[in-house]
């Protein structure tokens, strides 16, 4: 259970992200234990959190890394990830980003369109290199998640639709500087049911059978990330838990003996180890509401404003006080700058510290400077 060192916090400038490194270490250990099939390779999706302190722990655990920009590749290399453990996805890779990825001899480009594949081939040929690629397939599977974070439906911008797959595979095999390794999938994020992953396995099985009949073999399958967490219970494992998640692929995906299976987990690795700590500035009594106005805003944690997401809120200064209802809001000039509506919290006073839980993923990394506010700091547990 995360313990908040409240005495240490009292001298720190708020708001800040607090990371429980022990929890992160336990999580990566659990992933290593449950992804025990030697053909399974876990790449951390760095977009979830690129704080160097977080990256060091994940790199030390032997994970690869999944990047979606040249800057993420730079951050990964700086944190000690080797080029040959970096995969690079994204619908809009620029020429300089492709060039620097080739310079770093990355493990694989996850290619999202024919024009992109041609450009990678041209740049690689110019540089005298061969680019290893996987084709990102859009399998048209409903991940049953928020519309903004589903990625595997035909209407989404990601990947190659099934009808166009033959053509791009033919192209990949014909281009001189391309080494086609396999297929990549990522159907969405914050998926809390097993069924979409089972459907993904079935689609992959069908595609593999079809392509093998056509004489095309893949050495790599990448099923992306997407494993969801329980925002209502920050102390719990992801849902489904890691054991169930990896077992689903073990049981349903007919992986060939000489194939590698890549996973790109982001949220489930880092979400629960992080909390945004904020100080209460004012209690404002409205006519129908009582507002707890805090010094963190949507610039520090945008998920509530962007996806109507809810992060559990705890009054860590007064955990046992009498319960009241509050709208917990930030200082930013937007009505959506609100972390909770009618939250039941132990009595909140000016100066109290609140913890917004499960904020380790897509929290600090999505912070902005809106209203000219500074970026939030970060602070790590020592024990
Ligand atoms: C291609 C790709 N891989 C991996 C991830 C990581 O997803 P998650 O944080 O849901 O595990 C994402 C983000 O949704 C993604 O777009
Ligand atoms: N940023 C999103 C998830 C998108 C993941 C990236 N494809 C979130 O906070 O839930």
From TrEMBL:
Record: residues binding substrate: 267, 303, 307, 334, 362
GO MF annotations, alphabetized: diaminopimelate decarboxylase activity; pyridoxal phosphate binding
Domain of life: Bacteria
Keyword check for Aminoacyl-tRNA synthetase: no
Domain Orn/DAP/Arg decarboxylase 2 C-terminal stretches: 17-360
Keyword tags: Amino-acid biosynthesis, Decarboxylase, Lyase, Lysine biosynthesis, Pyridoxal phosphate
Active site: 333 (proton donor)
EC supergroup of this enzyme: lyase
Entry cofactors: pyridoxal 5'-phosphate
InterPro entries: Ala_racemase/Decarboxylase_C, DAP_deCOOHase_LysA, De-COase2_C, De-COase2_N, De-COase2_pyr-phos_BS, Orn/DAP/Arg_de-COase, PLP-binding_barrel
Pathway as given in its UniProt record: Amino-acid biosynthesis; L-lysine biosynthesis via DAP pathway; L-lysine from DL-2,6-diaminopimelate: step 1/1
Catalytic activity: meso-2,6-diaminopimelate + H(+) = L-lysine + CO2
Positions of the Orn/DAP/Arg decarboxylase 2 N-terminal domain: 25-271
N6-(pyridoxal phosphate)lysine carried by residues: 47
SUPFAM superfamilies, per the entry: Alanine racemase C-terminal domain-like, PLP-binding barrel
Biological process annotations from GO: lysine biosynthetic process via diaminopimelate
Signal peptide extent: none
Record Gene3D superfamilies: Alanine racemase, Lyase, Ornithine Decarboxylase, Chain A, domain 1
Complex formation: Homodimer.
Function (record text): Specifically catalyzes the decarboxylation of meso-diaminopimelate (meso-DAP) to L-lysine.
Protein's recorded name: Diaminopimelate decarboxylase
Organism: Duncaniella muris
């Amino acid at each position: 259970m995360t313990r908040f060192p409240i005495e240490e916090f009292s001298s720190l400038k708020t708001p800040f992200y607090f990371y429980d490194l022990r929890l992160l270490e336990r999580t990566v250990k659990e992933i290593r234990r449950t992804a025990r099939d030697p053909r399974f390779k876990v790449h951390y999706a760095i977009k979830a959190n690129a704080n160097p302190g977080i990256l060091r722990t994940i790199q030390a655990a032997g994970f690869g890394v999944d990047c979606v920009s040249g800057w993420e590749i730079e951050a990964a290399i700086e944190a000690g990830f080797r080029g040959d453990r970096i995969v690079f996805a994204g619908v809009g890779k620029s020429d300089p980003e492709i060039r620097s990825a080739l310079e770093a001899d990355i493990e694989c480009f996850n290619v999202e369109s024919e024009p992109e594949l041609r450009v990678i081939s041209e740049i690689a040929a110019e540089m005298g290199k061969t680019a290893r690629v996987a084709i990102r397939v859009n399998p048209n599977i409903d991940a049953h998640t928020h519309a903004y974070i589903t990625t595997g439906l035909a209407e989404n911008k990601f990947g190659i639709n099934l009808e166009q797959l033959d053509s791009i595979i033919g192209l990949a095999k014909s281009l001189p500087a391309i080494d086609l390794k396999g297929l990549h999938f990522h159907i969405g994020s914050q998926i809390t049911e097993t069924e979409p992953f089972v459907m993904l396995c079935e689609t992959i099985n069908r595609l593999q059978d079809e392509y093998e009949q056509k004489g095309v073999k893949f050495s790599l399958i990448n099923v992306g990330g997407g494993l969801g967490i329980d925002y209502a219970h920050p102390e719990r494992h992801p849902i489904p838990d890691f054991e169930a998640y990896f077992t689903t692929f073990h049981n349903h995906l007919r992986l060939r003996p000489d194939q590698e299976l890549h996973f790109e987990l982001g949220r489930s690795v880092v979400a629960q180890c992080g909390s945004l700590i904020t100080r209460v500035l004012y209690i404002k009594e409205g006519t129908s509401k009582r507002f707890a106005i805090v010094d963190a805003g949507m610039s520090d944690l945008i998920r509530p404003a962007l996806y109507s997401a809810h992060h559990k809120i705890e009054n860590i200064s007064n955990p046992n006080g009498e319960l009241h209802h509050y709208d917990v809001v930030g200082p930013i000039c937007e009505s959506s700058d609100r972390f909770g509506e009618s939250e039941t919290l132990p009595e909140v006073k000016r100066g109290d510290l609140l913890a917004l839980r499960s904020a380790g993923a897509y929290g600090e990394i999505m912070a902005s400077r809106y209203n000219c506010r500074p970026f939030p700091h970060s602070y790590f547990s020592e024990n």
